[in-house]
Amino acid sequence: APLIGVVALQGGVREHREALESLGARTRRVTLPSHLDGLDGVVLPGGESTSMVRLAAASGLFPALEQRIRDGLPVFGTCAGLILLTRTVLDAEALAEHPRVPVLDMAVRRNAYGGQLASFVAPIVVTGESTPVEAVFIRAPQVEQVGHAVEVLAEHGGRPVLIRQGIVMAATFHPELTPDTRVHAMFLALVGLRDDGLRDVGLTNAVE
Ligand code: GLN
């Protein structure tokens, strides 16, 4: 079974581990760079992106994770995790002081739907799935721009909410908060593809 690390600084860690384990994966909490050794994939949960960059800064976890991803480690970021993985974060003052994991060729806006009360649930149509997925949006970011290497797997209100760029998947919603495990299964399929010899990590090295 694949071993998936779940970055456990803050946010929805237990729910991601339960979803992955229900699909047959093994999981490990990741708080330090050494915890990345031997993983087949990594999940960056939602929570609060500003807290996460602060908590990760001392150990150098995020630069270490970025290097692993560029070397071929698949990663799945949800909500705040998507923000951490995106190259261009608009209104990024609060994030600018500490390293993130900027591998996705996209631009994203934090808290774009408004405050806590703007959280909502909506059905979304996901590429390859015959029935909609109920997507839970909590102070979600909005993807404002995507590069040509970004494949949009689902949209809501005309904006991408689930994307893939090479070995990186990201969602603006919280698939770990519903019993439906299809989105996690998509990530495990990507991890499996990597094991089967997918060579192109699908990431660019463009300078910000
Ligand atoms: N608003 C949060 C942030 O900017 C993300 C919300 C979430 O992960 N549910 O980090």
Automatic annotation (TrEMBL):
L-glutamine binds at G47, E48, S49, R110, I138, R139. Belongs to the glutaminase PdxT/SNO family. Its EC number is 4.3.3.6, 3.5.1.2. In the presence of PdxS, forms a dodecamer of heterodimers. Only shows activity in the heterodimer. The keyword Hydrolase applies. Pathway: Cofactor biosynthesis; pyridoxal 5'-phosphate biosynthesis. The keyword Ribosomal protein does not apply. The active site is at C79, H174, E176. This is Pyridoxal 5'-phosphate synthase subunit PdxT. Catalyzes the hydrolysis of glutamine to glutamate and ammonia as part of the biosynthesis of pyridoxal 5'-phosphate. The resulting ammonia molecule is channeled to the active site of PdxS. It catalyses: L-glutamine + H2O = L-glutamate + NH4(+); aldehydo-D-ribose 5-phosphate + D-glyceraldehyde 3-phosphate + L-glutamine = pyridoxal 5'-phosphate + L-glutamate + phosphate + 3 H2O + H(+). Keywords: Glutamine amidotransferase, Hydrolase, Lyase, Pyridoxal phosphate. InterPro entries: Class_I_gatase-like (IPR029062), PdxT/SNO (IPR002161), PdxT/SNO_CS (IPR021196). It comes from Brevibacterium daeguense.
